[in-house]
Fold each of these.
Amino acid sequence: MHVDAAPLAAGYDGLIVDADGVLFRGPVVVDHAVDSLTWVSEEAGRTWGVVTNNAAHAPSDVAAKLQGLGFDVDASRVITSPQGAARYLRDHGVAAGARVLVVGGPGIDEALQAAGFDPVRELDVNSAPGYGVAAVVQGFGPDLRWADLAQAAYAIEAGALWVATNADLTLPTAEGLAPGNGSMVQAVGNAVGRMPDAITGKPEPLLMQVAAEQWGLQRPLVVGDRIDTDIRGGNRAGMDTLLVLTGVTGHDQLSALREAAPQDRPTYIAGDLRALRAPAAHCRVLEGTESAGADELAEVRSLLRRAWGD
Ligand SMILES: [Mg+2]
């Protein structure tokens, strides 16, 4: 049997899945997501877990939401961008027990604590060096105040390592586009005259690497709905990627992918997660077969195949 006749998910030892736009949209579960991932764990015997840039919620909160929607997943299968920040600090010489200034939501405190750091919300202005903190971790938090940004600036100016959980400039809300964490990071950056030492969220490959390591995956498939975060991040981590059209990327945006740089090209494109059970050749873009994917995306794939093949 040619390998591509096997179900797509069976060609990998696990899946690293984005949450928003892949598993749910706001409070609503995405069609076919629960059935497809139940099949992945129970029939195909593959691990799957969630990697999200969202810094506002702890893994246990994300897992609880997913369980409420019908997914069989626990907190050990959820990696958030603050966990990536904790990992970065550990890898860059910040000692266990070190005080770390938190700017953002409670998910950051929890991730730092779990990694053995001491998250604090106030600088010790009498303490040198760095006002008593070794690092600053900055992520989205709806209750952020000017005083929080000011403290971050003071600590960074005094030599603290500075890690941001993501650099998204905008945050879509029901009322319109609001400033995202990247805008708050730039506010601090304007004061200190430089940008963060690291950004841990997608499209940086760090979260994917942390997930693969924690879940013991050698050859995972990254699944997401955004080109500039999920697909780029997966490609940068050297992993194959599946783009699904259940979130921010619509069918009408696919032909623009002809111009995409190699790091923004998904290995597979599919309407939804049912593709995981279908033969891999059906939604593979390069080296797919013209006749195999007899769905509404077949034409787009062959267009991209010709454009990228040149
Ligand atoms: Mg998404």
Amino acid sequence: MRNQIQWKGPSGRVAVFWSLVVLLAGGLAGCGGAEPGAESSERSGPLSVVATTGMIGDTAARIAGEHAEVTALMGPGIDPHLYKASEGDVRRLTQADLILYNGLHLEGKMGDVLVKLARQRPVVAVSETIPEDRLREPPEFLGQYDPHVWFDVSLWVETLGPIAEALTEVDPAHAEDYAANAQALRQELLALDQWVVDRIAEIPQEGRILVTAHDAFGYFGQRYGVEVVGIQGISTLAEAGLQDMERVVDLIVDREVKALFVESSVPRRAVEAVQAAVRERDREVAIGGELFSDAMGAAGTEEGTYPGMVRHNVDTIVEALK
Ligand SMILES: [Zn+2]
């Protein structure tokens, strides 16, 4: 426990988060003594890093390079809002040298597990390292920040330094590699961010409306100048109601929206119901394709990486709307 109190987070906010976790854990456990078997500074073999989402896992793997084996718990098609840790996950998490999660309530059903784990090992919420003034606080999400930060590539860049520093904390011997890998990835992602800007410019201004299954694309819309409409809210925990459907159908008809999009991690039924309701009003709206919103594509495919997922989504959106 004492080691953890002295752990200096990659940023002030992480350090604050960490101290809170330690305080909380100390309070719950009712003990302040050092844990037996605390990790020694010498280590052999690669680190074990466990991430919740694929986006975090892919990013951490790029920064860690050969020095870590990174596992992401949530594979293709998995909805992080609803995800509960399995027994196997808990085993993996308790054996990890470092745990990375999104935070901002994305992993809504893993909160307790993560708090417990944080008593024993470094647990870092990567999105909670982003400066608060860059986070969206949508009125309908009642005082909470929108967790879907990876859709603004320039914002996701903000997580690279903290991930590198978290790796360095557990493995200081490879600090230079982590910093260099993070820097290289930063350059790649800044170029990707510009590519998205250029690609979206191919859609005529009046056609830049993105209708999706749930409200995941707020940061995307804000960064790249696209009006975003989700049939469900920010979290998929709340089902879409009749009013939500009618609001979206009206908008599609009034604004002559050409296409709407399904998401790989959300059931298609709400999107298909909207499409059918539009048809009843003698209008056609296409399903423009499937977007990887809260989960990446299959491992080994282009969409199974963070940059590839971004490119897939943007290509799909631009081809359907331009
Ligand atoms: Zn979501």
Amino acid sequence: MKKVALSACLTGCTCRYDGKENLNITLLKELSSYEIVPFCPEDFCFGTPRPTMDLVDNGDKIEAISNKDGSVLSSPIEKYAKDFFKKNSDIKLFIGKDRSPSCAVRSGKVYDKEKNLLHTTGTGLMAKVALDLGIESWDSEDYLISLKLL
Ligand code: SF4
């Protein structure tokens, strides 16, 4: 069975920053021929509930910045992602939650250091690791749109 890495909140896991989920039954039905390998870097690294974070372009790199205290949160997320794909080296498909600073593939909001919105096509830090590894990667909404299910 082929494996798909899927944002855990889309499977119904209550791991969102606010302790809620983003259960997507349509997506789960569509992926029924896959073995789903759920992931949630933010729950693993920071627990749930937790303060939100945003992607900020500091000129050299896009970082995850805490909205609570401005701290840089990128390193543990990137480490989680690298460890995840090392452990699951046979993942063929990555589907991330849209607009998440960790999981978005091409739908993340990216700000400058003054918190002005630069664009809304950014890549979350875990999705970036998937793309860098050459794994086919989709935002969940784009995936469903491509199948004419949204
Ligand atoms: S980090 Fe990803 S998997 Fe976890 S709650 Fe946010 S969008 Fe969902």
